[in-house]
Amino acid sequence: MKILLVNDDGITAPGLAALKEAVQGRGEITVIAPQQQRSGMSHAITIDQPLRLRSVEQGFTVTGTPVDCVIMAMRGLDLEPDFVLSGINHGANLGTDVLYSGTVAAAVEGVLNGVRSIALSLAGSSSFLPTATQVARELLFEEPGFLLRPELIPASGVLNINIPALPRERIKGVRYTRLGVRRYDGMVQRRQDPWGSDYYWLGGIPGTLESNELEIDVAAVDQGYVSITPLQFDLTDYRALERLRSLG
Ligand code: MN
Prior knowledge:
By secondary structure, this protein is α/β, with parallel strands linked by helices. The chain contains 6 helices and 13 strands. The chain is globular and about 45 Å long.
């Protein structure tokens, strides 16, 4: 089994090492990751400057985005992996945040290249990465064993897995979920530099949940479950399409 590992937090991120540990000894592993932290890049690609590919201790590193990394692996290095695994991201990728996520986008790029792909995120402190490694190993190779049962991974989308930041014994189980909505309090923060000019930080803290339904990814993780959402990148709104077509 050939597995390509990628992330959006950069080649030195502890989450990438944790993911490598989860798949260690299970196949032929190749690591490719951005040289720097590139979270929030979504599906961006670099087309206005050259890319450098370097071989380093952890694997290959690219001076570009997460999606650049997957493109370089498949079209530059001509790798033909059986699976792309993206993560383990530092922080959750839940609800509408998947639209900003470089972690999810790297997995989607795997699918666009015909490879079944999974995105993994740890919804909190990296001190729980050992737990996330263990949970990832279980999900991938034991129960349900996604890499041994690839038919469970969508062929035209990705599995988006979010692991709660809890000790293993406090994780209640797995929920198969749909995407919720995530809103942030204080999304734009204005501050002043030492010379009195305004500058801004985007970000903020996730707002309160609108629902406790465990069918929704945000709620499932909040209540201590691993959330697994199958995503598709066909963004067509079929109901709206029908309405428009009915205009004749
Ligand atoms: Mn990230």
